[in-house]
Amino acid sequence: MKYFYTASSGVPNFPEFVAVGLVDGVEFVHYDSNTMRYELKQDWMSRLTADDPQYWQRNTEYLRGDQQTFKANIEIVKQRFNQTGGAHIVQRMYGCEWDDETGEVNGFAQDGYDGEDFIVFDLKTESWIAPKQQAVITKHKWDNNKALIAQDKNYLTQKCPEWVKKYVNYGRSSLLRTEVPSVSLLQKSPSSPVSCHATGFYPDRAMMFWRKDGVELSEHVDHGETLPNHDGSFQMSVDLDLSSVPAEDWRRYDCMFQLSGVKDDIITKLDKAEIRTNRENTMYIYIIAAVVVLALVLLAVIGVLVYRKKKAKCSHKCPPSDNGSELSEVEKLKPESNSS
């Protein structure tokens, strides 16, 4: 479970404060300074609020308070960096990971400023780490507040895992499901790396890597991020640079995808015939365009032949066309005006 807080200053068309809660990478709660409301994002959360009627109001009040705190904090940090105007962002990420098989718990909390780490909590030493000189003042202040340290530790190691278990229990049918992905090989051009792309899997606890002769590769490999899909599933990709690999050695490579809770791995052999490329898409476009043009030409030819055939039949029987009567027929279809 993770919570992300974002406070901004000088950023147009964006709320001054946003808070988002995620369970297994799925958003389940949302709050921002525009709505000032704690919004439930999953249907199963309604069962929790039925058992805990004060849940919504309690968390709304908490976050309204956090909103004011972060609004003040961003001004303090700006002063530390000798900044007055411009766009600036303070972020906080905190939460915990609970392994339902081993029972292991890992808590974390850290703040960032303008996209860089500002201060990080070390749960093992029960102290704060200041990567930036401007954060040293905050580190000393928080380290000396032993009551706050104990409170943070208790939340990250006790309360947070308890809430994870509670959320998982309410959202069991959704959060504990497993969905295996479709895996495909992609390549932009013949000189580009080959990307092993998996999409549609759930949960996000997955691993994917390239192998050679059954051994995982660490060189010439670029691991992409795990990204959410619009339907709540996830996608990920791993690129392999084959520029120095002879074509006859391609058969020695494969891509392996492993999903937590699923016994069978998905192995995709590196096969040039199975790689989808932009060239294929371009070829399909050309083929479709050619088919459309050919169809239009055929329709035009058919139209000319039909016209000539009718004209030949009418050469001795049909009266000459009358543009005036044609216009008069059009006039009959017009609605009557009030002035006539």
UniProtKB/TrEMBL annotation:
Keywords: Glycoprotein, Membrane, Transmembrane, Transmembrane helix. One of its GO terms (biological process) is immune response. Residues 315-340 are annotated as: Disordered. It holds the Pfam family C1-set. GO terms for cellular component: external side of plasma membrane; extracellular space. The lineage of its organism: Eukaryota, Metazoa, Chordata, Craniata, Vertebrata. PROSITE patterns: IG_LIKE (PS50835). The keyword Transmembrane applies. It comes from Perca flavescens. The chain crosses the membrane at residues 283-307. This is Ig-like domain-containing protein. InterPro entries: Ig-like_dom, Ig-like_dom_sf, Ig-like_fold, Ig_C1-set, MHC_class-I_related, MHC_I-like_Ag-recog, MHC_I-like_Ag-recog_sf, MHC_I/II-like_Ag-recog. Signal peptide: none annotated. Residues 181-255 form the Ig-like domain. It comes from the Eukaryota. Residues 329-340 have a biased composition (Basic and acidic residues). Belongs to the MHC class I family. SUPFAM superfamilies: Immunoglobulin, MHC antigen-recognition domain.
